[in-house]
Design goal:
A three-stranded antiparallel β-sheet has the order 2-1-3, with helices on one face. The chain contains one helix and three strands; from the N terminus they run ββαβ. The mean pLDDT is 89. The longest helix has 16 residues. It is an alpha+beta fold. A hairpin with a 2-residue loop joins strand 1 and strand 2. It has one domain: Ubiquitin-like (UB roll).
Length: 69
C-alpha cells in the first residue's frame, strides 16, 4: 500500500476545555490517518478516544501544500 501524508485537524478536550490541533501523519488512507492520530494522542497525552474530536482529514503533498483534485 502506498504511504501518503495526511493533515488531520480537530479538537481535544483537556480539563473540560477544547483545544484545536492539526497534525501531519503518514498513512495509507484517510481512515487509517484518523486512527493513527487517535492512537498517538492516546499514548502520548493519555487521552481517551471520546476526548478526541476529528473534524477533517485531507491529503497533502510532501512539501505540506494541499493536494489538488
Amino acid at each position: 500500500m502506498d504511504s501518503k501524508i495526511f493533515l488531520v485537524e480537530g479538537e481535544i478536550i483537556v480539563n473540560e476545555k477544547k483545544q484545536k490541533f492539526s497534525k501531519k501523519v503518514r498513512a495509507g488512507s484517510s481512515s487509517f490517518a484518523a486512527e493513527k492520530t487517535m492512537a498517538l494522542f492516546g499514548s502520548k497525552n493519555r487521552l481517551r478516544r471520546n476526548k478526541i474530536l476529528i473534524k477533517e482529514v485531507k491529503e497533502v503533498l510532501e512539501d505540506g501544500t494541499k493536494k489538488r483534485n
